[in-house]
Structure formats: C-alpha cells, structure tokens
Amino acid sequence: MHSQTELGVKHVNSLLFKYSVPAIIGMLVNALYNVIDRMFIGKIPGVGPLAITGLGITMPIATIILAFGMLIGIGTTTNISIKLGQKKNYEAEVLLGNAVTLSLIIGIILTIIGIIFSEDILILFGASENTLIYAKTYIDIILVGSVVNLLSFSLYHSIRADGNPRISSGIMILGCILNASLDYLFIFIFNLGIQGAALATIIAQCVTAILTILYYLSKKSNLKIRKNNLILRKDLVISTFAIGMSPFFMQLAASLVQVISNNALRTYGGDLAIGAMTTISSIAMIFLMPIFGLNQGAQPIIGYNYGAKKYNRVKKAYLMSLSVATIILFIGTFFIQMYPKFFIGLFNKDEELMKISIQGIRIYLFMMPIVGISITGSNFIQSIGKAKIAMLLSLLRQVILLIPFILILPQFLGLNGVWLSQALADLISTILTIIVLYKELRSYKILNDEGEDILKAELEEYALEKESDKDEK
Predict the structure, then answer these.
(1) Whole-angstrom distance, CA of residue 201 vs CA of residue 180
(2) What is the mean pLDDT of the chain?
(3) C or N: which end of the chain has fewer Cβ atoms within 10 Å?
(4) CB 290 within 8 A of CB 324
(5) Is Ligase included in the keywords of this UniProt record (predicted)?
(6) Is 463 exposed, middle or buried (0-12, 13-18, 19+ CB in 10 A)?
C-alpha cells in the first residue's frame, strides 16, 4: 500500500531519485557491455581500425537479435507482472516456461539462417572486401550464441517481475565484468583478435543465462521453471508477442537505419567512416543511456499521478526529469566538443580514423544538449497513456526524419551529410515534441483544482497510515 501511496504524496524529487538511480545504473551497465567490447576491438594490434569497422557492419544483425530478445523478454515480463497482480501465479509460471521455449526455437532459427546467409547479408549491410573477414568472423560466433543471448535477455528481465530487481541487476553487472575480463584475456593474452571478442561476449551471455536459470530453480524465486510449462500455450504466446511487438518493431527500424547509414558511410567516406560511426555511437551511448534510465524512473511517478488527476505533480515530475537529462547532455556535449580526441582515443588512435571521427562527432552530436526534450518528451506522452503519439514522436527522430536525410543530404554534402542527418533529425523532432508538450502541459492549468483536493485527502490518509505503523511497532 505504502509503495503505491507514496507515488502520489511523497516529494517528487526524492521519488525520482529513488526510482531512477537503479534504472540509470542498469542502463549504464548495459551500455558498458557493448562499449567495452568496442574499445578492445578497436585496439587490436595492426587491424584495429578495420576490425571496429567490421563490428560496425554487424550491428544491424546484433540489433535484429536484440529485437527478438525484446519481443520475448519485455512481452513475458509485462505479462508476468499482470498475472501476479491478478493472483494467477500458475499462468505466470507458464509464461516463464514458454519464454524459455521461445528463446530456444527462435534462437536456433536465427543461428541457422544467419550462418547460412551471413556473407550475403553482411555485403548487403555495407561490408567490403577489406572488412568482410572481420565482420563474418565476429558475427558467425555471435549467431552461434543466439540461444543463450535470447535466454539471458528474456530471463534476467523477468527476475524484476518476480520481485528481485537487485538480483537481476547483479547478474547483469557480473556479465559485464566477465565480458570485459575475457575481452582482455582473449584479445591481448591469447591473441584471438575479433574472434576473441565474440567468444567473450557469448561466454558472458552463457553465464548470465545459467545464473538466471539457477535463480528460477532456487528457493529465492517465487516463480519456478517447470518441465510441463515448457509446452507452448497459444494464448500466452499471442499475449507475449502483442506486448513485445512495439519494442520489437522499434529495434527492427533501428536495424534498417543502421543498414542505410552503413551503406551511405561506405559510399561517401569509405570503410573507415563506418568504424568512425561505430566509435561515435558508442560515445553517445555513454551519455544517452542515463537518460533512458531516468525515463524508466519517471514513468511510474508520472503515470500514477496522471491517473490520480494530480497534474501539478505530473508536470513537476516531467520537468525535473527533463532538467536532469538536459544537464547530463550539456555536460556530455561540452566535454565531447572540447576533447573529442580523448573520447575517440579510448577506442582507437589510428590517425586517419581519428581525423574522420573528430569531424563526424562534432557534427553528429551537435544537437545532443536539446535531444533530452525529444527523448523524455516521448516517454512522458507514453506515460500518460497516449501511446500512438509517443510512438510517432520517437519514430520521427529515429526513422521518419532520419532515413530521408541520410538518403538525400550526402548527395549534396558528401560524408558531412551523413553526420548532419542525425543532428537535423534531432532538431526537428525536438521542435515538434515541444509543440506537443506545450499543448499537453498547458491543459493542466484548467484541471489542477480537482487534483489538489485529492492530494490533500491522500496526504492526510498517508500520514495516518504511517502513524498507525509506528504504533504497531
């Protein structure tokens, strides 16, 4: 009762801190999982620039695998939460068992199709004769690990729904540390090159999958993986896919953008331009992931208070999350623009790659200080139940504006046109988001009186509950 009541009465700033910090840590760990991999690959002696370019070419395939992970993982986790709330524990366990089976089936299909057609797919995705060998060596190993990749992603997410977010975060952090340690061991001690990076990734994912399965077989879990629940139930599979379909298609759209971007980069800047983009996107990820964590923390606060008609608290929660996001992005942009060589040097110090990357990062991330409005704004609109508008705002920045810009601008501006595409998409999507936000927040002035009366009543009730708890102790 208290955890729900506090969302409507406790100070918004302290609620945002409480709910956001764990999510921010989780998102940063998730980002480091990928970023550290790229740092090690970029520094492989003699071939680092081409190796990181090869990795960049495989990113659309990795994004497609992630899309299926989200289809199963987010769909399963959300449905488990709903079933547990309805006291339908048996169906929650069947959902868990079905997630294991779906991960196995889809993972095997992705492995078979991916390995058979990997060379053709990579050439289509922007590989050249120089980079194909690195891309194929890396992705073939990653594809072999598709099953454990999907298992680890879908199951550690569902641990949160089972009521143990700390264990879920702990498993993720352990996987990240193991991946980084094995990267160093395989690449620099055993001299396995990009093959070592791929092996490190799937071993870490394998350990994560084993730990999540062991959790569900232990006494710590409320739900259990049972043999009879591995048989797929059509209604539960449909409900899982129905919820997971939105993030699934968003990731597929992201993969399409990566393919178009890779081909434009190769056409107008050569192989190393793809390596530069891989480096730039990794640096951006470090600063953008905390914003996504902030969104996760703000979502329940905004949603609860909107449902309770406490519009002043809704507005305050959003503006506070926007302020924090903007501060983070302003600081990040300042250091990136002032010291680009330092950040790019974390991944590779090759002179030609450095030159392309410095020019690219300054244009590509030029609008980063204002992009927090777009990212937090679409999350805010989604949190108040306007999912279609939220989806449109999100797609504007990542797909609807970006793809035409990537196709058109380089024809006039060359490689700079590719870098400028993201900055322009950020600018226009932010302006449109501001218009939507202004209309939404302005309407709250009329609605606030009723919310204030509800807040006063709930504050009194909350105070009485806390007093009662003290007396009982």
Answers:
(1) 9
(2) 89
(3) C
(4) no
(5) no
(6) exposed
CA distance 250 to 465: 43
| Percent of the chain whose predicted confidence (pLDDT) is above 90 | 62
Identity of the residue numbered 170: G
Contact indicator for 382, 390 with CB cutoff of 8 Å: yes
CA distances from 109 to 59, 113, 115, 126, 441 (A): 19, 6, 10, 24, 47
DSSP state of 46: T
Q: What is the value of pTM for the model shown?
A: 0.87
DSSP 316-374: HHHHHHHHHHHHHHHHHHHHHHH-HHHHHHTT---HHHHHHHHHHHHHHTTTGGGHHHH
Half-sphere exposure of 472 (CA within 13 A, CB side): 6
User: Rounded to whole angstroms, what are the CA distances from 81 to 40, 156, 386?
Assistant: 38, 14, 21
Residues constituting the chain: 473
In angstroms, the CA 312 to CA 185 distance is 53
Q: What's the token pair of residue 459?
A: 């504050």
Better-predicted residue by pLDDT, 391 or 327: 327
| 8: enclosing H helix or E strand | helix 2-9
**Cβ neighbours for 232, distance < 8 A, ≥ 6 positions apart:** 98, 101, 102
Helices and strands: H and E segment counts in the chain: 19, 0
Contact 288, 62 (CB under 8 A): no
Q: What is the DSSP letter of 190?
A: S
Q: Domain-by-domain residue ranges, the chain?
A: 1-27+270-473, 43-256
Reading the block at residue 135, the tokens are 């891309």
